[in-house]
What does this fold into?
Amino acid sequence: MPAVFTIDARSGVPIYLQLIDQVKRSVAIGVLEPGEQLPTVKQLALDLTINPNTVARAYRDLERDEVIETASGRGSFVRGNGTAMTARKALSDVAVDSLTHAIREAKSIGLNRSEVLALVQTAVDRWFPKEEQ
Amino acid sequence: MTAISIRNLTKNYGSFVAVNDFSADIEAGTVFGLLGPNGAGKTTTFKCMLGLAAPTAGSVLFEGQPLQPALFERLAYVPEKSVLYDWMTIGEHLEMQRRAFSRFDAGRAKELLALFDLGEKKKVRSLSKGMRTATALCMAFANNPDILVLDEPTSGLDPVNQRAVLKLIIDASAQGKTIVFSSHQIGQVERAAENIAIMQKGKLLVGGSIDDLKAGWKIVEAIFDTDQFSTNGLAGDSRVHRMERTGRILRLSVHTGADALVDELTKMGANCRAVDLNLEDIFLNAVDPATVTTDLVEKA
It folds into this structure.
C-alpha cells in the first residue's frame, strides 16, 4: 500500500474529513484498487502521526459510505462489489464538494446566477469538447 | 468509560487562584490535550490530579474512584521539571523502576532508550534538558501504564524527537491507553489528541473534540453594499461569539451554525462566506479580545 495520504493537521478542516476525502479520491482515480487492503488504524495513525481514534472514525464513515469494508480480524479493504459505482460515487462526492465551494466563492464576490452559469458553461466546454457531448 | 473525571477543581495558593472551577472528563482509551499559556494552571491541575497538591475544592476521580495506591502501578506521570537524580546513570534509574514496578518491561526500556539515542551508562548530570525529558519518558512508557499524564513531554526536544514522542503517545493510544498531555505547541495537540481543554487563568475557556470544534468554529465574513447595514438580532444571537464591523464589512466569530448564518446574511443582501479555523485560530478567538477595533461590539 503506497503512502498516498497527506494530512494538514493545521488546516481548519477536521483531520478525519481530510482522510475520508483522500481515500475517496484515491479510490476514484484508481490509486487504491478494489480489494486492496488499507493500512491498519494503528499503522496509518503512526505513519501520519495522527490520533488513532481519528483514523478509526474516518474508516467507520468510509464503511458507511460503502467505499471500504472491514473483515473482522483481517483488516479494511476497498470494496470489490460494484467497484465502478463506488468509485463514481466517491468521485462525485469529491466533485460536488469542490463545485459547491467554487460556486459559493463566486457568489461571495458578487457574481450573479447567470454569470456563474456562464462560467460553469465555459469550464464544461473546455473539458468536454463538443464531439463528446 | 470515564478514565479520569475532574470535577469543579479549584486550587488556591494564598490569594492566588491557580485553578478556578475546572472540570473535564477524559474517556478511557483517548488522548486528551491540555492547552493554555504559561501560568494557565495546567501543571497545578496535573498536581491536583495526582495527589501532589491538595485541591482547595472539587475532586478528581480515576475510573470512578479517588486516587489510591492500587492505581500507582498503572499510572505514570512525567512532570515538566525532571525529577531524576544527577549522580545516577540512566541505567540505574531504569533498574530502580524495574524493582518498583511489576509491570516494568526491560526489553521495551531498551527499545525506548535506542529510540532517543540514550546510553544506559550516561550520568544524568551530563544530560541536556531534552535528554532528561526523554529519559523520564522512557521510564514512564517502560512501566506499561494504562494511564499516562505527561506535562510538556516534548519540551526541550528537537523536532525529530518531538515527533518520536508524539508517535509514542499515538502508539499507546492505539493500544487502548489513556493519555493526558499538555503542550504549548498547538500543532502537536492538534495531531495527537482527539479532545482538548483550553485553560486561561485557571479557567476552562474552550473544551471538546477537536473535530467538533473545527466543524463548529468559523469566521463568517459578510460584505454589504453600504456601511449603513443593520445588525439587528445578531448581537443577541447565541451562535455568535464575537461581532466586529468595519465599514461595509461584518465579521462574526461563531461557534456553531455558520452555514445557516451565511444563508441568512446572504438573504439580507450581503456577499458572505464562512472561513475554516484551525485550533490556533479557535484558541485565539476564544482567548483574545485584543483584536479589538474601535468598532468592536463585544458580546456579554
In short: The mean pLDDT of chain B is 90.
